[in-house]
Amino acid sequence: MLFPTFTFAVFFAVVLPVAWGLRRWPVPWKLFLLGASYWFYAAWDARFVLLLVAMTLGNAAAVAINVRAAADRVRKVALAGGVALSLGVLAFFKYYDFFTDSLDRNLGVSSPALDIVLPVGVSFFTFQAISYVVDVHRGRTEEAGLLDFAVYLSFFPQLVAGPIVRATEFLPQLRSEARPDRAEVAHAVKLIGRGMFKKVVIADFLARAVVEDAFESPGEHGALDILAGIYGYAVQIYADFSGYTDMAIGVALLMGFRFPQNFDLPYKADSIQDFWRRWHMTLSRWLRDYLYIPLGGNRRGRLATYRNLLATMALGGLWHGAAGAFVLWGVYHGAGLALERWRGEAAKRRPPREVSLKGWRWGWGWHWAPSDTARLWMRRFWVFHFVCLGWVLFNSETLDRAGDVLGRLFTGWGAGPELLNPLVALAIAAALVAQFFPRAWAQKGAGVLAKAPIGVTAVAFSVWIMIVVALGPEGVADYIYFQF
Prior knowledge:
2 domains; two-stranded antiparallel ribbon; 2 strands; mainly alpha
């Protein structure tokens, strides 16, 4: 059940008023939210609702033992059991074929072949379960009732593609009273409208117009088409994923829940670290808090810090899928973060000196030192292309395919463009330029919506939806991050 579809519109038109109508009675309200979330998830495959139920009961039991056990050893065993349950589910569904193929290929050990269907969003709800179990053990949140935890783990807006919401962020909202707020409704409408435009008009258009052909058959296209495909994918994956989370946050906000921001204009980042503070922010913070810091973070010296960065990002790449390209993508970003950190540390040890370029003209010498603004834009340019090179790995099913794409980028300059056209170029350029729009513009638009009568807002939103449908291609493709 995709957000920008008529099916979801009907589903949400029923769920929203009933949920607000039941809000004054906590238990019926939570039961309704749980039932609606299970119904939403069953639209993909009803069998996996049982997986959600099993994950809920298993992690709730681990937390109950952890909280009530007197011995510290028992508490640690309960913690390990809860984490192992979540990681076991994730490993079985995402990595069984990968591991068995590796064993067979490298050691000659055969394993039974299983036709495993990947549950939609399994990575997201398993990570939420892990964060809950660990946070209770660390004393950062209290044990939730079984019903509250079940709603937290299965709440439909973020269930299948994030953002990754912590128990400390969600559970208090289940216990608090909330009323519809005009400003929040306006903000939600803005988020949903913006998310639909990103997904339907930008992401789906670029996927069909240039990205799919450029990556599936790079040998048939020239270098300009490959370059457009790489830039197009950078825009597509951002518009696709941030568009989904915009809608998820907006839908949750209409129901009275505030979710954390997940994207913050990542392509205006001026360092690799800054990029990861802006891209899939809830995953970045999860990896930091539950993997990088427990590994030692930056507390054990420079070499250990670089090792921890590489390990964290490599596992982050593996989280995206059991493929060498994903792992290499993670290692690539980890190496970039480590190199960037090393350069920063080296710069602090060097005495300050002016950076300048020297040249000559007609015998006259001249010096030019780039301004702070020029340096900022040079860093942004470098970081964006570093990220784009990583996207080639990310969007290639195999390392051979990534090599074909990059190879054609260097050898295909004799062929003219077939995929690149003015509309494709405009879509890519407009999406990138929009990263630098002042925030005040968006805030001003939300303020206008907040002051408008609710009927005017509804009509404006309806007109916007019709525009999006008219501009977008026929049909709505699955979201990229559904496979993770």
